[in-house]
Amino acid sequence: MNMHIAAKHPSPEMILRPDFAAAIGNTPLIRLRRASESTGCEILGKAEFMNPGGSIKDRTALGLLDDAERRGLVRPGGTLIEGTAGNTGIGLALVGNSRGYRTIIIMPETQSAEKIAAVRMTGAEVRLVPAVPYKDPGHFAHRARALAESMNDQDPGSAWFANQFDNTANRDLHENTTGVEIWEQTRGRVDGFVCASGTGGTLAGVGRALKARKAGVQIGLSDPMGSALAHFINHGELKSEGGSISEGIGSSRITANFEDAPIDRAWSIPDTESVPLVHELLIEEGLCLGGSSGVNVAGAIRLARELGPGHVIVTILCDSGTRYPRKLFNPQLLHEKNIPVPAWLEQAFTEAA
Hints:
By secondary structure, the protein is of the alpha/beta class. Helices cover 43% and strands 14% of the residues. The strands form 2 sheets. A 6-stranded mixed β-sheet has the order 1-2-10-7-8-9, with helices on both faces. It has a 4-stranded parallel β-sheet with strand order 5-4-3-6, sandwiched between helices.
């Protein structure tokens, strides 16, 4: 009877979001049970994989494009161009689609096949280039900038280079949204925030937002092996060792977004520490996450142990593990990299064979 009455007398206003951009952000915090229980802290993951494009880079893309539109840097129907490891390309193409732009993405060819396919599925034009150091003019970011400049030489105003690494609209977006959300969701009880850095926008932006509200909050950098940033924070020198199968994080240089980030602590996280956490989170807590999330959770655990029990630590759950099955869930590759392979994963591939 009540259902019948409700159907006859609907609410006068529908509850909806008007477009793609309005669905970005306001992601929940999820308690990471095992990490919390093992440290005596509350370790919380901000579920950025729940953004409509599947990653935290939806926020970055929206912040960059909103800023460009406000400043008149991109014209209606123009072309958005970015150099990216993948997720920013997905977010930028989807936001662009919703606003009538076309998108060209320059990607290093070493990224996962699934992520490359995901970018192509957005309708963006994808151009793969060799993975080379930033100092090489063939680096994907330099290629993207050069392409935009070439297009604008032929047709002024036809292309816009998003420049996620050095366009500080990236950092500002996270300071004004992600950091504020974390503060409000924890009711100001947050004692520490940890994440990796690719562009530096998330770490710097959230760090600035939280420090402005609570000076004593600890901001930590969780850096994959092969990146030079942790060594820079701890020793003042850009130096890297080893490597990682994680994608989209780590850097050999200080970007404009990372510069002046309020970082208190930094750790280099090996794959042998981060990848098993990805497997544990999936099989024990139902969270299917990418490698960067494993690096982030490893850093959150390290900060929790340094601060001691009773603290609230927040990190970022960046994207889904479904974008990296041939790396994170490939027993043969994991064995080759001397990364522990859980019995359930080994069995699953044995049965599949």
